[in-house]
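Objective 1b. Sequence-to-structure analysis of NifB/NifX family molybdenum-iron cluster-binding protein.
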Amino acid sequence: MKICITSQGNDLNSELDPRFGRCKYFIFIDTDTMQYEAVENLWRDAQQGAGTQAGQFVASKGVKALITGKIGPGAERVIKAAGIKVLEAHGKIIDVINKLQEEGK
């Protein structure tokens, strides 16, 4: 399954970034193969609409789930309209992924 996790760094040992629209990186990962791509969040310094623009970008990547800390109402509308499940988490990216796989989500 392809998921997106908001991250403070560009690898799986980074901490999850609790801010969706203002996160530093989006990590897109295929949980079946563990292949991932880290993409810098180009909208994190936007004057307004960072969450909505970030949400549109994440939705365009075809993910099934988004793992983050908090998500604003504009971004949440975009994400949910795309049929993406939102999960709240914290900690290291790799630990979050391992926990999800153990739980079978």
